[in-house]
Amino acid sequence: MILRLLVSLSLCFGSLGTSAAREWASNDGRKLEAEFVSSDGRVVTLKRKDGSTFTVPLDRLSVLDQSWVSLQPSSGAVAPAAPSSPAAKPVEGPFGKLLTGSWALDERDGLKYALYGAKDLDAAKKYPLVLALHGKSKNEENGRQVAGWMNSFTKTGNYSSNPCILVAPLSAQPEAGEGRGWNDGQVEQVIKLVKALVKDLPIDPKRIYIIGHSMGGYGTCHVMGSEPRLFAAAIPVAGVSTGDAGELSRKPMWMFHAVDDDLVPVAGAREFAELLKSNKQFKYTESATGGHGVVGRVFDDPETHKWLFEQHLK
């Protein structure tokens, strides 16, 4: 079923001619021109130049296109709803307007970021916050840092089980170009953003998590090591700390790496796992296959979500 879906999507994004409609982009960068017809919140119906229509899963589109769809008056899009009472108190404040059920883009003190939360979150309740750090890229456009693996948290099944708020900051490229985008300067900006979100939104201060892939995996270790009292748990994938264990030796962490990763050798993960072996809250999972893209498999696994959301700051 998944294979047929991917093949269908590939054909849609690879074989269409141009039209007078708008340009669309898939979350892996493929583009097409087609006319928007409708959306039910799960799939988007588009029209080719020849008048024929086809559907594309909403989460296969870029974050920018998903946001565009959510704003269309003709769209039947319904954001994944977090369980809440009929009398849910609306979330207000400067960040409250960004809780739309789609990734919303904004900037704070020079730091660009994307924020996700259901539009009917209850201000009277408390929700986990997940800070997601992207890997190295040449991207400078806010929204494109939201990788496919981050969207595993926004899928209806996962989100209904674990309603939360997600934030994905964009690393400044002069630093990220060297693979060092999540070091001291940007870490300070990210921490300030997280603390501002906690102050303004209904976030449980004991359930703030940090996850990241590749450069974001390194960043996950660095940020959590810098602010161990802020984060309840961390999941670095295909990227680990280059220093000593420090504060991480006392924190819940689940680290993932693939043996056949040809960009970030598994040796570094093994060495770091050895440093943390005395930490009873540390887990290390090594896959024989998956390469540097093992991150998709990691966050598609319900057990990963279950473990993360069970962690609480002590």
From TrEMBL:
<keyword id="KW-0732">Signal</keyword>
<feature type="signal peptide">
    <location>
        <begin position="1"/>
        <end position="20"/>
    </location>
</feature>
<dbReference type="InterPro" id="IPR001375">
    <property type="entry name" value="Peptidase_S9_cat"/>
</dbReference>
<dbReference type="GO" id="GO:0008236">
    <property type="term" value="F:serine-type peptidase activity"/>
</dbReference>
<feature type="domain" description="Peptidase S9 prolyl oligopeptidase catalytic">
    <location>
        <begin position="181"/>
        <end position="241"/>
    </location>
</feature>
<dbReference type="InterPro" id="IPR029058">
    <property type="entry name" value="AB_hydrolase_fold"/>
</dbReference>
<protein>
    <submittedName>
        <fullName>Prolyl oligopeptidase family serine peptidase</fullName>
    </submittedName>
</protein>
<dbReference type="Pfam" id="PF00326">
    <property type="entry name" value="Peptidase_S9"/>
</dbReference>
<dbReference type="InterPro" id="IPR050955">
    <property type="entry name" value="Plant_Biomass_Hydrol_Est"/>
</dbReference>
<dbReference type="GO" id="GO:0006508">
    <property type="term" value="P:proteolysis"/>
</dbReference>
